Fold this protein.
Amino acid sequence: MKVRGYAAQTASSPLAPWEFERRTPGDRDVRINIEHCGICHSDIHFARNEWHFTTYPCVPGHEIVGRVVEVGPSVTRYRVGDIVGVGCFVDSDRTCNSCREGLENYCESGPRMTYGSFEADGVTPTYGGYSTQIVVDEHFVLSVPSSLDPAAVAPLLCAGITTYAPLRHAGVTKGSRVAVMGLGGLGHMGVKLAASFGAEVTVLSTSPSKKADALRLGAHDFVVTRGEDALTPLAGRFDVVLDTISAVHDVNGPMTCLKRDGTLLLVGAAAEPLAVATFPLIMGRRRIMGSLVGGLPETQEMLDHCGTHGITSDIERIEPRQINEAYDRAVRGDVKYRFVIDCTKF
Ligand code: NAP
Ligand code: ZN
């Protein structure tokens, strides 16, 4: 089945129109007409081979919302016409301990990523959501709450779950003190979600111009991190610092802002190592916890939570021809707060 999309052909070439094949839906597959796809900073790292494992052509996109147009004979959960979502992975071994616990994102055989992996045949690359259609096993398809704007739901499939899962895992609840570092796609969802759990939220940002937005999104405080002593007044303050920064940055200053036994939740995936000083870590028995998106049950739980609380992403809608410009703007931190591609225009 021929599908239109946008692909990067090399690490340095701009994304451009490209046609490729999707598999014919099997027994348990759902064929989805993609309507919206968010632009995650991971798409940019990947398309530009910043993590050094990209194969080309590369069709990014793992914040997918669309409409079911065909279901295989054994599909039970979805019907033609349903609005559904697909996130960062489209299969896993389903038998390992992680999969059995509903943490397919930590599949011990490695989850099959929505793009940049291989299909079950082991040779056909997976291609992502910057395209008109996708075919996915129903087990890896999410139900989108009907009360929410589908375009603004798309970023929840990555930015939403990537912040929801570790905040929950770290026990963030009413009265927790949470700092969110980096007010981008992930960061702005982290603010909304932590606030919806009843936490007191502070944004730590390099961009003074984002203060009003941070407060509107639900933050109680906003601190600009540039400058020698910027973090000194925050020493020992937070239970959790959610670090969503996409580039190499200092984590030691933010670490000192944690209480004893506090946790730095690292979800940002800078391409180069971060330097961790020993003293801020050992002095307060503090810890660093990494986290990769979320499993299917918690992703559905997050979507349902967002449905109940009326939470979506703040988005800028773009057409496919604006993707490269959007990448450059995202790298500059200039996005309010997620670009979402109109995939009906490919
Ligand atoms: P984004 O929208 O570009 O936001 C990143 C924010 O980080 C920027 O808005 C900026 O916020 C801050 N920032 C950027 N460069 C900085 C620098 N040099 N120093 C300090 N702060 C800087 O990116 P995103 O889509 O939210 O993704 C963030 C990171 O998370 C990426 O590395 C991405 O690959 C990763 N990610 C991880 C997972 C996971 O499962 N762990 C999932 C998705 C994405 P301010 O202007 O407020 O400073
Ligand atoms: Zn992502």
